[in-house]
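Extended Data, record Aldose 1-epimerase
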Amino acid sequence: MAMIDSSPFGTSQAQLYRLTNENGMQVTLTNFGARIVEILLPVDGQLRNVSLAANSDEDYLNKDAYVGSTVAPVAGRISGAATLIKGKTVHFTENEPGRTLHSGVEASNVQYWQVDLVEKENQVIFHLVFPDGYNGFPGAVTVTATYELTEDNELKIHYQAHSESDTIFNPTNHVYFNLSGDFQQSVGEHQLKIVADQFVPLGEDNMPLGEFWPVEGTPFDFRDFAPIQQGLNNQHPQNKVVGGYDHPWVLSQVEIPVEVISPDQKVRLIMRTNQPAVVIYTYNHGPTAMTDRHSVFSLECQGFPNACNLENFGSILLEKGQSFDSQFSYQFIF
């Protein structure tokens, strides 16, 4: 049975939990934001951290409180900071001009979640309840975030939720990767493969246009391995609008929709999910106190952003008494 170590992580409310497997891989997690902190891989006799991390809850608050966190109830931007839920207009906290980003202020990423440790399964399970009306979202909504490290070097993430009212729910995890372990180095030389024929274009306001465009003939075509660099300083209008990538891809229903290989070819990341989209963000806004521009990338598994206000983007309605279930994983070969 695996032992799960715990230790203080800043203020008295924050704890750090360490999962380890027999291959020497380690994952650290914190109840502050039900967050992935470090992902440590034994490479060439040394532990290589491939997940952008801060040193404490206070450190995240000072630098970037989204990094590595669980973003809930709804990831991404909601246009107009409002939506219709079964014919009734619901207004949300507006934390960007004219819209809601990542569920508004004081969202799940800065909450201290309750914790259960299941050593037999090498799992850490975080729990949080959003009260009814939290940032405008109907509820109450009970959320569970389960992290499990397997002997196959796979970090499995399982989000579950149920609500006492009809509401909307579309969470994700905001972990950022650099498989070289050097967070001063651009991720441009990482080789990326996405089994996706379409992506979602964005407008000048960073909001989805509500359309699906073919990847064919664009820097969004990663159906064969290609360097991330092809879209970082590209003149394609969709790359220029965000300064890289910040787009959802429409994933084909295959076992392995996304793979990434480190520049030194010593680490391969395999992503699996039951969600329809992956949002890849190449940290286009640096340098920050956290890291440099284009030095990390996200793989955010979720429903389509702003689906609540766009036709043909699928439903993110979570009805009263219904269960929500999102599963995704990051497996490492090293």
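Summary. The chain is about 5% helix and 40% strand.
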